[in-house]
Amino acid sequence: MSRLIINSSKPIDGEVSVSGSKNSALPILSACLLTEGNVILSNIPDLSDIDVMIQILSNLGCKITFENSTLTANAKNITNICLPYDLTGRIRASFLVVGPLLARFGHASVSLPGGCTIGTRPVDLHLKGFKSLGAKYTISDGKIDIECKSLKGARIYLDFPSVGATQNIMMAASLAEGETIIENCASEPEISDLADFINKCGGRITGAGSDKIIINGVKSLGGCSHTVIPDRIEAGTFMIAAVASGGKIRVKNINPSHLTSVSSKLTEIGAQITEFGDELSIFSPKIKKSTDIKTMPYPGFPTDMQSQFASLLCLVGGTSVITETIFENRFMYVPELVRMNAKIKVDGRCAVIDGSGELVGAEVNATDLRSAAALAIAGICAKGKTVINNSEFLNRGYSDFCKKMSMLGVDIYQE
Ligand code: UD1
C-alpha cells in the first residue's frame, strides 16, 4: 500500500500540462488487436492501467514498445485468444479485447473484468451487441467463451448509452460483413477518438460523437499513427483543485470543448475561466456559490468528476446536492471526507452537502481512482496534515500527480 501525504492549505498557482486520456488510450490499445500493420500512438499517459493493458496485449502476442508517451504496437501475429483473471481482474477495460478478438479470429475466451468497485458494472449490453452481430457465447466459472464464424452487420439499440459497450461493438463491427448501426450509443469524446483511430487504419465509421454510429465493415485494417486526445478528467481535476484552494492556474494541452459541463458548473460557483486554443486559465472567486450536480452521459456532467466536485462543494458555503445517475456505488468516499470534517449526508443516489464548514487534515482511505483524487483535493484545502492510504489508486489514472501538484505549490509526496 502506498500513502499520499499532503501538508498544505494554500491556493495552488502556476501551470500544468495535461496528459493523454486514459479512457481513450485503453480502447485504442485494444483496437490495435484489429490491425495487422504497425501502429504508432502518441500522447499515451504513463499509468498503471496502461501497463496492465500492455501486459494483456503482450500476453495475446502483440509486440509493443512504450517510451516517452509514444507506444508502438504490431498485432499481426496474435498467438493467444484466452485471457486469465489475473489480468482481466485488474482493469474493467480488459473486456474491450473481446470485440476485436471475436472480429478478427472468430473466438475469444476471457475472464469477466474487474476494475474500480464503483458499482456492479455488468457487460450485458456488450453481449447483446455481439449476439446481434451473430456471435454465440457461454459464461461459466467467471469466464466468457464467445465465437462466430463471421460477424454480420446489424441494427443494435443500446438500452443505455454505455461507453464500453459502444466501443466494443464498434470495434467488432469494423471487421463484420456489411453495415452496423448502433443507436442510443455513447457520444463521449473517447468514442470519437476510437473511431478516428480505426478510420485511420482503414475503417469506415461515421456518426461517432452522436447518438447513432454507422459502421461499414472492412476485410482488414492496417497500421497508422495517431495522437490520443487530452485527458478531460485529469484537466477537470486540476480545475476543481484550483477553485477549491482559492487559486489560479493555467491548464495546458487540453480540448476545452470536452470540458463544457465541468467549466459551466465551476462558472456557476463563481470561477472565471478563459479559454484560448488548447489551454485555459481558471481563477477562483473570493466568495463562492453552492450549486447542484447531476451526473449524466456525455455531454452531461461526468460521473468521473463527481467525487472531486464534492470536495469543492464542501467549501463553497450554502447547500449543494449531487445526484449520481450512472454508478450506484459512487459515494464510498463520503465517510472518508466526513473524517476531514465534511458535512455530507447520503440518501440513495443523492448526497446533500453543507458547504459552510472547513476541511481538516486526517488519515483517510482511498476506495477507488476518483475518490483518491477527491481526497487529494480535500487534503490540498484542509488545515493540517492529510494522509491518504491506498493512494496507488491515483496512479491508475493520473500521470505524475504528485509532481504536477508540487509544481503548483502543493506540499505533497507519495511513500
Ligand atoms: C467508462 C469509463 C469510466 C466512466 C464510465 C462512464 C473507461 C475505461 N472507463 O466505463 O471511467 O466512469 O465510462 O462515463 O473508459 N452498463 C450496463 N450494462 C453494460 C455496460 C454498462 O448496465 O453492458 C451500465 C453500468 O453498470 C453503468 C452504466 O451502464 O451503470 C455506464 O457504464 P459504461 O458507460 O459502460 O462505463 P464503462 O465503459 O465501464
Low-confidence stretches: none
Helical fraction equals 25-40%
- Proportion of strand residues: 25-35%
Bound molecules: uridine-diphosphate-N-acetylglucosamine
Query: What Rg do the Cα atoms give?
Result: 21 Å
Query: How many β-strand runs?
Result: 24
Widest sheet: strand ordering: 22-23-1-24
Anisotropy-based shape = elongated
Discrete helix count: 14
Q: What is the averaged pLDDT score? A: 95
- In whole angstroms, the N-to-C terminal distance is 9 Å
* Category from helices, strands and their pairing: alpha/beta
Largest sheet: 4 strands, mixed
Name a few traits of the molecule.
binds uridine-diphosphate-N-acetylglucosamine, 14 helices, alpha/beta, 415 residues, 24 strands
Question: Strands, helices and their partners?
Answer:
Layout (H helix, E strand, L loop, with lengths): L3 E4 L5 E5 L4 H10 L6 E5 L5 H13 L2 E5 L2 E5 L7 E2 L1 H4 L9 H8 L1 E5 L12 H9 L3 E5 L2 E5 L7 E3 L5 H12 L4 E5 L5 H12 L3 E3 L5 E5 L7 E4 L4 H14 L2 E5 L7 H10 L2 E5 L2 E5 L9 E2 L11 H8 L5 E5 L10 H6 L3 E5 L2 E5 L8 E3 L3 H13 L3 E5 L4 H4 L3 H7 L4 E3 L1
Parallel strand pairs: 2-15, 3-14, 6-7, 10-11, 18-19, 22-23
Antiparallel strand pairs: 1-23, 1-24, 3-5, 4-5, 7-9, 8-9, 11-13, 12-13, 15-17, 16-17, 19-21, 20-21
Helix pairs in contact: 1-2, 1-7, 4-6, 5-6, 6-7, 8-10, 8-12, 10-12
This protein binds uridine-diphosphate-N-acetylglucosamine.
The site of uridine-diphosphate-N-acetylglucosamine has 22 residues, from helix 1, helix 5 and helix 6.
